[in-house]
Amino acid sequence: MRFDVSSTALSSRLQSVSKVIASKNSLPILDNFLFSLEGDTLTITAADAETRLVSSVQVMNAQGSGVFALSAKNILDPLKELPEQPLTFDINDNNLEIFIYFQNGKYNFIGTKGDTYPQQKPLNATAISISLDSKTLLNGINRSLFATADDELRPVMNGVYFDIQTDSLTFVASDGRKLVRLRNFSVKAPERASFILPKKPANLLKTILAKDEGMVNVKFDENNAYLICENFEMVCRLIEGRYPNYNSVIPQENPYKVTTDRLSFLAALKRVSVFSQASSLIKLQLKADEMTIFAQDIDFSISAEERIPCQYTGQDLNIGFNATYLIEILSNISSEEIIFELADPSRAGVIVPAENEENEDLVTLLMPMMLNE
Q1: Beta-bridge partner residues of 150
Q2: I want to staple 43 with a disulfide (CB 3.0 to 4.6 A). Which of 36, 266, 305, 335 is the partner?
């Protein structure tokens, strides 16, 4: 086999798909990229035990066809340092000795037979397919992924739940202390379905979709999902299990509502939370049209408080929250103002944007922390 390819185009594709390769693989072949040459298209595959990422790049002057595997570490680092120039790959089909010729020199590798690379099982006949805009998928993952858990005892909480209705797609994530529910009404589906996307492929999609535009086709059955976009194809094993009824934990009517400027609230939280690094506990004291944020660390004899204006007409209320979680939630809302819906110091607070984005309905929930009063 022999072909020419752009160094930057190849390096870009290799760096993107390499993120799926695990630091320690049970199968040594998974430390390699799988290359498949067919006509003028070079297909590149990288995988771990659960996830597979495939991309392709156009080549020139191709001679022959076939598959071979090459150590990811050996080829990634040299190509990063090369300026843009054509590379010539010359592969001996008998012993898989590989030469890569470039302007001022050459690299020499010994490849591995590509037929030993694990193959992906096809989806079963009951697979469901939906299409959505890449920006919609990226936005849903970006704004929900932070709320996923790291819980070995409840693996279903360790991913983003896709709840597909005929008139909407809902992204849900929760770790039991915070919850995000983002409903998008621009996505339609032929039938009701759902799946749980694990955290690793969700993070990979964040990187891929940030550079990709157009539509994403999602096909899935009860075990695996195929996500196909313009430049990449991802196959991943889904988390098996039943996701909890997330709607049942969201309070339908909290009597006290606080409306305030999101960025002012967020900035004040970041300043005050410095004084409660050990516990991350901050106290919100609500009075008529005023919210005071308190934090203290008794061990270091430090404390802080800051007042910010708000719209509030209920009774005086003190409630505690984890500052880190509250900052994460506020950072994932784009509205200028937020509405904080509260009931009492022991019940969850609901945080929603004062104005939702077009075709969206965002609800976040945060459990309170006990105040020592």
Answers
A1: none
A2: 36
Residue 111 structure tokens: 């490849």
In this structure, of 24-28, 51-55, 307-311, the range with the lowest mean pLDDT score is 24-28
* Residue 141 DSSP label: H
What pTM, to 2 d.p., does this model score?
Answer: 0.91
Looking at the DSSP bridge assignments, the partners of residue 297 are: 302
Structure tokens at 105: 């020199």
Quickly list H helices, 38-193. Answer: 72-80, 134-142
DSSP code per residue over 157-205: GGEEEEEE-SS-EEEEEE-SSEEEEEEETT---SS-EEEEEEHHHHHHH
99 Cβ contact partners less than 8 Å away, ≥ 6 residues apart: 89, 90, 91, 106, 107, 108
Q: Is 15 helix (H, G, I), strand (E, B) or coil?
A: helix
What b-and-e string marks burial along 9-38, b requiring 16 or more CB atoms within 10 Å of the CB?
A: ebbbbbebbbebbeeeeeeeebbbbbbbbe
- 316 forms beta bridges with none
Rounded to the nearest 10°, the torsion over CA 198, 200, 204, 206 is 60
**pLDDT tens digits, 84-117:** 999 999 999 889 999 999 998 999 999 999 888 9
Q: Which residues contact 331 (CB under 8 A, 6 or more apart)?
A: 266
Instruction: Please give the Cα distance from 16 to 235 (Å, whole number).
Output: 15
How are beta strands 317-322 and 302-309 bridged, if at all?
unpaired
